[in-house]
Amino acid sequence: MDSRRIIILPSLLAADYGRLADEIRRAEAAGADALHIDIMDPGFVPNLSFGPDIVALARRTAPSFYRNVHLMMSRPDLYLEKFRNAGADTIQIHLEADCDLHTELRRIRELGAKNALVINPETPVEATTPYLGEIDEILVMTVHPGYGGQKFIADCMPKVRCLRERLPEIDIMVDGGVNAETAPVAIAAGVNQLVAGSYLFGKEDMAAAIEGLRRSGK
Question: Is 38 in the active site?
Answer without folding.
Answer: yes
